[in-house]
Amino acid sequence: MLNRPMTDPRDQAVHAALRDAALLFAIVADELRASYRGARREVYRETLAAYVADLGGVLEETPDRNLVARVHGRAIAIRFD
Questions:
Q1: Which residue stretches of 1-81 are H helix?
Q2: In the chain, how many domains are there?
Q3: What is the pLDDT of residues 58-79, one digit of tens each?
Q4: Which domain holds residue 37?
Q5: Domain-embedded: residue 1
Q6: For residue range 38-65, what is the model confidence (pLDDT) as tens digits?
Q7: In a domain, 27, yes or no
Q8: Side by side, which strands form the sheet with 74-79?
Q9: Cβ(78)–Cβ(65) under 8 Å?
Q10: Are 47 and 10 in contact (CB under 8 A)?
Q11: Which residues contact 15 (CB under 8 A, 6 or more apart)?
């Protein structure tokens, strides 16, 4: 493994989703700013949904194309702005 930034958009989306899934369960706030800003938002969303499900939650898309993670009675908004 080389120590250089990822250049593949899919890899960037997967990496950002993993990082944000970990943050979702570490924060007490009710909102998170998504760390992914790339073109493969669907990969980010699908990957984040899988990680959230593995942790016992569900990820939903809102009408304004943001996301909500519902976990253990909590709802955490995920914003892309």
A1: 9-24, 41-54
A2: 1
A3: 999 999 989 999 988 889 999 9
A4: 9-79
A5: no
A6: 999 999 999 999 999 998 999 999 999 8
A7: yes
A8: 31-33, 74-79, 67-71, 58-61
A9: no
A10: no
A11: 6
